[in-house]
Known about the structure:
alpha/beta, Rossmann fold, seven-stranded antiparallel sheet
Amino acid sequence: MINYLRSKQENLDEKEKIYEQGVMALQDLIAPSGLLIHSNSLKVGKKFSRTLFVLTYPRYLYTNWFSPIVNIDETVNISIYFHPLDSATVLRQLRKKSAEIQAQIETEAEKGLVRDPILETALQDIENLRDAITQNQERIFKVAVYITFFADTEENLQKIEQKITEILESRLVYAKPATFRQFEGFESSLPLNLDRLFLTNSLNSGPAATLFPFVSLDLSGESGVLYGINLHNNGLVIFDRFLLENANMVILGKAGSGKSYAAKMEILRSLPLGIDILIIDPENEYEYLARAIGGNFYKIAVASSDHINPFELPMVAEGESNEEVFRNHILNLIGLFKIMLGGLTNEEEALLDRALNQTYASRDIYPNSDFSQATPPLLEDLETVLAASAGGKELAAKLYKYTKGTYSGFLNQPSNIDISNRLTVFNIRDLEEELRPIAMYVILNYVWIMIRKQLKKRLFFIDEAWWLMQHEEGSSFLFQLAKRSTNKLKIGW
Length: 493
């Protein structure tokens, strides 16, 4: 019975061993299907690889000399090993070498030969290095640099090698393939901290430091939005614009190059980070996006039911006075009327300034009063005030088309827009060309007076901003908003 149980247990152990042999481990997943070793290359799976090692350096190495290799547009593994040497041993070797060179210089001088500048320079370098090591300013390292690159064919492998060697030789640095030691070179370039080749050069701290840290064209931050791929090194372009001194950005490109697509990608990647998005859409490119993610979509047009009253009163932020905010609002309105009326003379501007104050006063709204709960006037109220003012009838006549004429449904209505949604799109596609700059200005001013009280990360995308910037007042207004929002409210435009 005991023998039977022992036999049964042995059978179970054997089956367990067979089962364990069939389990796939991590190394089975990452290992190549095969490895073919040649004298000057390896075939790793379906890829060919070759390892170069740095053979010699020039007398001087300047900072960032290795950067072109780090950023080369090829698949490359680079390993750099620093093996520190004992300073006492190095000093003994340098003293011996210094004595040899001095003896050689003296021997040549006794023979009457012309001085050899190479020997004198070598002696000077050794003595300077001895002084630096003695004063603990420098250390000596055995430095090994291995460059392993990959290609689909051996012909491409040769081309990559030529590209790398040309870059190095232009800096008087020479590299050679690890002939008959390609497998050791391949292992040495893996992140295993194994220097299997140990093909080194002696470098002191200064030249060795030029190899690291790499001065790479790196555009990745620790947080933020993914913008794309860095073409220099295939790295990710990630950064948080709100961590920068200025959060604004301009997207430039020819027609069809993907400007709107880039903006939409940033919008979708910013929303999960808690950033509110506002968009002025002149070409109806963002409606589907707004509908798909539950955002607000407003159509600003002459016959639309969505309205913005340019006389909407601003919110007063902490630390600001009602009078200061009110007067700035009046100035913004004067800028709007300059665009609407094609410019103003000095007399007309003064008259309009007085009329605007009287229009607000007709609703019991004064610079020093609390107007947070007041009902703002409409454009037709300003027209009435101008018509009753001396010299204001001409300006009132110019406003007629915006109050009772063709464009009466555009600006002469109370506001019914809600921008509390995480994504808000203002569509102005159906507006006539002459009205688009006006609509952009009104939307910008409305958004500014609605959000300026609450400190929050927001992005305001102004597509086709040139519509507004073709007017001097529009460009100035946009510039002021961009500067003020970056400093106070951290809004990216």
